[in-house]
Specification:
CATH superfamily of the largest domain: SGNH hydrolase
Number of domains: 9
CATH class of the largest domain: Alpha Beta
Domain Sialate O-acetylesterase: 122-330
CATH architecture of the largest domain: 3-Layer(aba) Sandwich
Strand content: 35-45%
Shape: elongated
Number of helices: 9
Structural class: mainly beta
Distance between the termini: 155 Å
Radius of gyration: 64 Å
Helix content: 10-25%
Keywords: Hydrolase
GO molecular function, one term: hydrolase activity, acting on ester bonds
Domain Secretion system C-terminal sorting: 906-979
Organism: Emticicia aquatilis
CATH topology of the largest domain: Rossmann fold
């Protein structure tokens, strides 16, 4: 069958490469890459055949280049099985390795073989349409990988036949194909370079893409539809395009494992909605997971749709797939790759577009993807059993396997076993969903004849215990002795019958040889006892003795011949005893002396210190008991006095140390007394000088924190001082209490005992008696005069130069009113007009130099003279006193009243309106007014309550003419003639 042909070609190549090797590696093959797990490891199957008898096969892996993997030691792949094949596993970290195997016979390495370039890294299946499959017309063939660690299977057959798929890997260089269905390396090769260099592991790609087909077509083919007639241009093989992916999963991935399927597709789905695209792709993903028997098989979906414009519904469907289907990861947004040198026809990647696509994919296959995707690991090789049928000369061997529902043997067999005579055979087991598991090829030799071996003894077969005899087969290889040992010769050391069976290369057994009986005589019991536990302490002795009383002689290496000896020196002691049967035995015992315990005395502080302090001394190590020269038996000794302290310690074995000593020095403390200068004048503000009554010291510590010899003190209180001498010892503190002499008390009084003045005034402040005065103004007199608001403070000093605390006096200054103006309104009425309104504003009038009593704004001038006025503001102070602040006097207004003037004025006269103003020189209370014609007829009468101010008389009801107006107020009477025009 085709797969047998492929295996035989591969096996022939291996044999031709290493014609003289008697061991061959048939699995793995060169440049294969096994998928690693998320711990960067893979279990790699190692299998092959050997063509001469071997006892054991060992293997190891060595990195091709330093830094590209972790070398393993030699590990047994398989112990002897008598069937000509070996199969086992080796655990490898991610890397690029040469696999070495070696065959061992009778303890000697007799054959080796090396398989170069086997990888543990990352494996991917690429799928989709033309931008996943590639095209040499778009520079897709000559963009191969340059890194040696990027692999593929260089094979493409448009008429895909799974039985013809090769299993021979190549470096993914220029013009390589990607089995099973990609025909150029495309940008995947450059992606492989980038991943290999970034991850430092090999990378393997399988190709399962097919150009021109929509996601719906992929879904239908995954459901089993044959689309050849419907889509003859694209689909040449039944089951495509999904069949290519299934072939990669079931024919290749079973042997290598895979990390994920990389999906680059979408240009042919412009008519699909987002939901339709999602449902189609979800079906394909679920089918791939079912066919691979891995429910969480990882997919990476690129956002790809440009044809040549972006198709939003396709991108929507791809995003829905990423969001909704577990273990589907975001791929790159390759629609961003656009331009004449990036897409040849606006659709297919070209030139720089291929390089850029590899960059995009490399960026999205990031650490998050590798950490969270769960790889599908390679399956183990099937287990094969070869059984010899010695009585069947035609088909001498039965080859058996199991565990699969379907078998295909290279000789046409379809059950789980075949019977054959000789030749090279293999099989593939197919599980219930079609996954194919390939066996290693194995060879049945044409020469499997065996003969009964003959054994001989090289010496006496009866001997004392501890001796032995060499038994040898007359056949050099394939010997299995009755005690399970292998080899042409063995050393028999125990009683019994010994025989050997010889096996052919593929496991046919000869009749057993004749037996040789070996009789081992017992040696006398021999064990040396010690009278005490070993080792012993120095100066002790120990008795050595045996409890065997049946010996005929006892000989010690000290030449003593008794059963018990006493020793006091270290050394190796032996005893030889001869038994009744003449056999001797010898035993040994080492007598050693324990080292005396030793230690040092440590201290938890200084060993020279000042009186009043102490130090703990103790041994450096723990012991079972302690003996100080003070009589103390504790581990730690607290020392406060001067002297030399001695210690012996005893360990857990009772051994006592030599005496060790520690010198402790205790220094006396210095004595200090404080002297104070200036105490008799110590009041607040004065200074007392404190100093020690001691010649010298290395350090001073005052309670103030100062460290000088003397300090200057300005505050009362308790002061202490301790001094430190040349030994660093500090005295007991001495103390002194300082108390202030009472300071004088300052007081300030003011003139008139007030604290508030008007603006422009001044106030005298006076101190009580003292020897010196210090005002905040800088004045040093007893009293000062101030005219500004503020707080004035004072300190005084007495005859002891003691300064009082500051006393303050606050002066307030109230604003004085501005100067008002005066207007003469009429004949007698003066009106004071203020410049500022003020709630408690009064006025002070004067005529010439005479002060008038009127305080209102209106003044009736009742005599000739110069009238002026000043504004008065009245302030109510906090002590309920009033303060009056005066403005300057206004400019004077002259008022002239003629001699014998009756003091009655009415105007305007003549009057065109009938409205008159009436004034009198006096206040004229209860004034009566009457108007008469010239004929004496009264035409009007009225009254005013008073004429303190001008009054208005309304005579508009009178006709025009001349009238006499008469005003009477008490004894005052006046009249005037008026004209109404």
């Amino acid at each position: 069958m085709n797969y047998l042909r492929n295996w035989l070609i591969l096996l022939l190549n291996i044999v031709l490469l290493d014609t003289y090797s008697q061991i061959q590696i048939t699995f793995p093959v060169s440049r294969i890459v096994f998928q690693r797990n998320n711990q960067n490891q893979a279990t790699v199957n190692i299998a092959g055949s050997y063509f001469q008898q071997l006892d054991k096969v060992e293997a190891r892996a060595v990195p091709v280049w330093g830094g590209q993997g972790t070398e393993t030691g030699w590990n047994a792949v398989q112990e002897f099985k008598n069937n000509g094949i070996f199969s086992g596993t080796i655990q490898l970290n991610g890397g690029w390795y040469n696999i070495e195997v070696r065959g061992i016979l009778n303890g000697n390495i007799i054959t080796t073989s090396t398989l170069e370039r086997v990888g543990v890294g990352e494996v991917f299946i690429v799928a989709g349409q033309s931008n996943a499959q590639g095209d040499q017309g778009y520079s897709g063939a000559t963009i191969g990988a340059t890194d040696d660690r990027v692999s593929t299977i260089n094979y493409y057959d448009p008429a895909l036949n799974e039985d013809n798929l090769p299993f021979q890997f190549s470096q993914m260089g220029n013009n390589t194909k990607m089995a099973p269905y990609n025909y150029v390396p495309w940008f995947w090769a450059k992606l492989g370079d980038k991943l290999a260099q970034r991850l430092n592991v090999p990378v393997l790609f399988y190709g399962a893409a097919l150009g021109g087909l929509s996601c719906e077509v992929w879904r239908r083919s995954a459901e089993g539809q044959d689309l050849r007639q419907e889509l003859p241009t694209f689909v040449k093989v039944a089951g495509m395009p999904y069949r290519g992916m299934k072939a990669a999963l079931q024919q290749y991935v079973t042997r290598t494992g895979v990390r994920a399927i990389l999906w680059q597709q979408g240009e042919s789905d412009g008519s699909s909605s987002g939901e339709t695209y999602y449902n189609n792709l979800r079906t394909v993903i679920e089918k791939s997971r079912s066919d691979s028997k891995k429910d969480d098989l990882a997919w990476v979906v690129a956002r790809s749709s440009r044809n040549p414009s972006i198709l939003p519904t396709v991108i929507e469907g791809q995003n829905l797939t990423i969001q909704r289907v577990p273990n589907v990861f975001s791929g790159p947004p390759t629609d961003e790759i656009v331009g004449a040198n990036f897409r040849a026809d606006g659709i297919h990647f070209h030139n720089d577009g291929l390089w850029l696509a590899s960059d995009y994919w490399n960026n999205y296959l990031d650490g998050n993807f590798f950490s969270n995707s769960q790889p599908l690991m390679a399956r183990n090789l099937p287990v094969i059993t070869i059984a010899c049928n010695p009585n069947n000369t035609t088909n001498k061997f039965t080859i058996i396997t199991g565990g699969y529902p379907l078998y295909k043997w290279s000789n046409g067999g379809t059950s789980n076993f075949i019977t054959v005579s000789n030749g090279t055979f293999s099989f593939k087991g197919i599980d219930e969903v079609g996954n194919t598991i390939f066996s290693q090829p194995f060879t049945i030799s044409t020469n499997n004849n065996v003969t009964q071996p003959v054994i001989s003894a090289n010496g006496n077969t009866t001997f004392c215990d501890g001796q032995g005899v060499v038994l040898t087969s007359n056949i050099s290889s394939g010997n299995v002795w009755s005690n399970g040992e292998r080899g042409q010769s063995i050393v028999a050391r125990g009683s019994g019958n010994y025989s050997v069976v010889n096996y052919s290369l593929n496991g046919c057994a000869s009749p057993a040889s004749s037996s040789i009986n070996v009789n081992v005589l017992p040696s006398p019991f021999n064990f040396i006892n010690a009278s005490k536990s070993l080792p012993i302490c120095p100066d002790e002795t120990v008795e050595l003795f045996t409890t065997n009383n049946d010996g005929t002689s006892y000989t010690w290496n000290t030449n003593e011949t008794s059963k018990r000896i006493t020793v006091n020196k270290a050394g190796s002691y032996s005893l030889r005893i001869k038994g009744q049967n003449g056999c001797e035995s010898q035993s040994f015992i080492d007598v050693n002396f324990r080292s005396r315990p030793s230690t040092n005395i440590l201290a938890d502080g200084e060993t020279t210190f000042c009186l009043g302090k102490s130090v703990n001394i103790f041994p450096q190590n723990d012991f079972s008991s302690y003996m100080w020269n003070t009589g103390a038996t504790t581990k730690t000794l607290n020392v406060r006095t001067d002297g030399t302290y001695t210690l012996r310690v005893k360990d857990n074995f009772g051994c006592v140390s030599d005496a060790i000593t520690k010198k402790i020095t205790v220094n006396a403390l210095p004595v200090v007394k404080i002297k104070a200068d200036g105490v008799d004048k110590f009041c607040e503000g004065n200074v007392v000088i404190l100093s020690p009554q001691i010649q010298s010291a290395l350090g001073y510590r005052w309670s103030t924190g100062e460290s000088s010899k003397e300090i200057y003190v300005v505050k009362d209180g308790l002061y202490t001082l301790s001094v430190r001498d040349e030994n660093g010892c500090e005295s007991t503190p001495d103390s002194i209490k300082l108390t202030y002499i009472p300071s004088p008390i300052a007081s300030i009084t003011s003139s008139e005992n007030i604290n508030t003045i008007c603006d422009g005034s001044s106030l005298s402040l006076v101190s009580n008696d003292a020897t010196a005065y210090a005002w905040s103004t800088g004045a040093t007199s007893k009293g000062i005069s101030v005219d500004k608001a503020g707080v004035y403070s004072l300190k005084i000093k007495d005859d002891k130069s003691c300064l009082s605390k500051a006393v303050s006096f606050e002066v307030f200054v109230k604003e004085s009113p501005p100067t008002p103006s005066v207007s003469l309104e009429g004949s007698f009425q003066l009106h004071a007009i203020p410049k500022t309104n003020f709630d408690n504003q009064l006025f002070s009038w004067k005529r010439d130099t005479e002060q008038l009593s009127t305080i209102s704004a209106i003044l009736k001038a009742n005599a000739s003279g110069m009238y002026s006025v000043r504004a008065v503001w009245k302030y109510l102070l906090s002590n309920n006193k009033e303060l009056l602040c005066y403005s300057p006097y206004s400019s004077a207004v002259e008022v002239f009243i003629p001699y014998l003037d009756n003091g009655f004025r009415i105007y305007p006269n003549p009057n065109p309106t009938g409205i008159f103003t009436v004034e009198t020189i006096g206040d004229s209370p209860n004034a009566e007014v009457a108007v008469f014609t010239l004929t004496g007829q009264k035409v009007y009468s009225g009254s005013f309550s008073d004429l303190k101010e001008k009054r208005t008389l309304d005579l508009r009801q009178l006709e025009k003419g001349v009238y006499i107006i008469r005003l009477v107020s008490g004894s005052y009477e006046a009249s005037s003639r008026v004209i109404l025009k």
